[in-house]
């Protein structure tokens, strides 16, 4: 859709900005021109798309939300088409968006570079986000393939195991429990646990482990929004954390962090390659999918 001219683009802009004035500025249109586009859309469907919000701006009606959702999906697909055409004009056979959870960012760039060397004719775009954003991307069709931990139940996906994904409890090298041959669970009750944000797969796993380990004991917790920040906080002595081993390999190797020996740890999970079930992969996507499976041994090292 040509931004600034199509009525659906005008509707998306008002929805995003929350007002006609903000949408007009965003699209570089006059207010009358913007109103005319919204009226044309309402005439087409025979119903209002927008209503006055409690804050004095504009918000979508229920029908307006349905129209805007479809318009956003169409706009995304058109953007993908433009990128695909650009890839073809550059001599490539196509483009594939590979999404990974943030925990995988410690190996994903090297992995993608190997894929690009193996399949130079395919443009591989790497996107990184937390678990919730990956699930939303799969549900909306904004991504083609994803590398993540536990596959979601919704949306339904096809999943292939790539490699083991261990999680361990880490502490600063000088922590009082760091040198113990086996840390009793009772010794953990007074510790502060540093957790990822809501929506993170690491957060879900850590919360479940704390509930099972402490049998409902209310542990002290602190929330941080990235693995890097958590690692720095642990090294500073702010607490301990359950993290993917892939995120702390360097710190464990150079002695800045230690893995604590606790009954039931490490927790062994798997990395999965997933794509939306019921949505057949294109030939280009299938080629990349198979190449990723062929390189899975790289993740196990």
Automatic annotation (TrEMBL):
Residues 8-61 form the HTH lysR-type domain. Keywords: DNA-binding, Transcription, Transcription regulation. One of its GO terms (molecular function) is transcription cis-regulatory region binding. It comes from the Bacteria. SUPFAM superfamilies: Periplasmic binding protein-like II, Winged helix' DNA-binding domain. InterPro entries: LysR_HTH_N, LysR_subst-bd, WH-like_DNA-bd_sf, WH_DNA-bd_sf. Gene3D superfamilies: Periplasmic binding protein-like II, Winged helix-like DNA-binding domain superfamily/Winged helix DNA-binding domain. Belongs to the LysR transcriptional regulatory family. This is HTH-type transcriptional regulator CbbR. It comes from Paracoccus sphaerophysae.
């Amino acid at each position: 859709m040509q931004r600034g001219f199509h009525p659906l683009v005008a509707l998306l802009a008002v929805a995003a900005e929350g007002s006609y004035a903000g949408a007009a500025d965003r699209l570089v249109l006059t207010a009358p021109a913007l109103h005319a586009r919204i009226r044309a859309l309402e005439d087409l469907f025979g119903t209002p798309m927008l209503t006055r919000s409690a804050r004095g701006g504009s918000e979508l009606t229920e029908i307006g939300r349905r129209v805007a959702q479809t318009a956003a999906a169409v706009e995304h697909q058109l953007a993908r088409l433009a990128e695909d055409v650009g890839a073809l004009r550059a001599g490539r056979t196509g483009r594939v968006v590979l999404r990974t959870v943030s925990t995988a960012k410690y190996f994903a760039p090297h992995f993608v570079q190997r894929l690009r060397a193996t399949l130079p004719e395919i443009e591989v775009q790497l996107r990184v986000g937390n678990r919730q954003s990956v699930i939303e991307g799969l549900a909306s069709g904004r991504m083609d393939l994803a590398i993540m931990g536990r596959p979601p139940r919704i949306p339904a996906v096809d999943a292939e195991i790539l490699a083991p994904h261990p999680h361990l409890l880490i502490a600063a090298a000088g922590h009082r429990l760091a040198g113990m041959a086996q840390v009793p669970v009772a010794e953990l009750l007074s510790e502060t646990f540093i957790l990822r944000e809501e929506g993170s797969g690491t957060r879900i796993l850590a919360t479940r482990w704390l509930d099972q380990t402490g049998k409902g004991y209310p542990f002290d917790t602190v929330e941080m929004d990235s693995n890097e920040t958590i690692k720095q906080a642990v090294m500073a002595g702010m607490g301990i954390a359950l993290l993917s081993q892939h995120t702390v390999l360097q710190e464990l190797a150079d002695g800045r962090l230690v893995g604590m020996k606790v009954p039931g740890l490490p927790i062994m999970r798997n990395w999965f390659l997933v794509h939306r079930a019921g949505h057949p992969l294109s030939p280009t996507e299938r080629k990349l999918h198979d190449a990723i499976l062929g390189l899975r041994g790289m993740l196990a090292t």
